[in-house]
Specification:
Helix content: 25-40%
Number of domains: 2
Strand content: 5-15%
Number of strands: 11
Structural class: alpha/beta
Oligomer: single chain
CATH class of the largest domain: Alpha Beta
Order of helices and strands: HEHEHEHEHHHHEHEHEHEHEHEE
Distance between the termini: 50 Å
Strand order of the largest sheet: 6-5-7-8-9
Length: 418
Amino acid sequence: MSPPADRRRSAAGGTYFFLSYAHSAQSQGAPLDADAWVGKFFTDLVNEVRREARPVAGMRIGFFDQHIPLGADWKAALAEALGDAEVFVPLYSPGYFSRPWALGEQESFRARLAAAGPARLTAGHLTPVLWIPFPPWESHPELDGALDLGRDVPEYAENGLRAFCMLDSYRAQYDLLLSRLAKRIVHTAEQRPLGPSRAPSLDEVTRPAPTDPDFVVAVLAPTRDRLPPDRDPAGYAASGRLWRPYGRRQVLPAAEYAASTAERLGLAARTEDLAQAAGLLEHRPAVLLVDPWIAAAPDASSALARMLHGLREWVVPLVVTDENDTQDATRWATEVTQLLQDAGLPQVKRACSMPEFVDLMPALVTEARRQFLKHGPVVPFEPPPEPLPTLRDGPTVTPDPASPPDDPAPQRPHGENR
């Protein structure tokens, strides 16, 4: 039976569900994006919800972040989608609770529920799924809600829904839980609709980036006042880190897109012009975005060679051009690539379009992180200093030599997430 017309009308213009997940690190040359299974599950869930639903005009079925246009402000687009969603479906995995981006989505939706009133907190608007099982030593209170989806399916707690999605041998279990989840989404969205309302942006609900970040996006691009005489100034600004190589097709500077990719992978990121980032690059992994027009200025080659000299292995360069640019940058791209290789950075990638830029970025962030863990400085463990004895101290207790000493804290490369 369909819900009363006034209830269904309040959900008009909204979305049945928002799918949230932890983005996976992607290696260069990997045969399959690890998040492809999230995409398949999303498609299956959309189809199942559509079969169950009786949406009003303008009501969308589902949303996940691969729907965001390439040139959009990703955080603003997410806030808008979170404000439209009736049900928030997080795919819990060990990585989910270490990704500020994913947790920020959940906190934004929770804040929206809290603003709607206490009754909304238990109304099924937040319906988690166990996507990948957790190791036995890791526990989160939220997991109990995710396990509720399949209490009667023992393999669900053991393997998670991703295994069901991937393997034909679990087809019956997958179809059962997919149908069950879709029915819950439809029941909540149609019987107890929130209606669109404001959701806080991710920046409002997550901690601000630390002064000493986990990751750096450095930019080597001309400023507007230092462009070659014949270069079109569109896309340039007072700072290189504000450079927009794709002009009006992108809302945010290229560096912000790269930083958002790092944040989605769990790394607090900061953007800087290369000249200001020198100190950070000594002890932080980085992607270096290079505009080849930086080499077009007179006598630029020698100045660039000095600037690039000594860059560490964990600084991964990307030469960024626009195939739709009427001014050919081939000569300068070739020159800049050679300068980067001469500086000891042999693997120089090039993005000639916005889709290429977006597709390459997760692998470049991952590669920079991998190189940093391989070659970066290690901070030795330093035990706390022994307190000075006082007259109030009791007698010294000699430890039993047969008992094992406490394990020291593990050594970590400087900057590794904790």
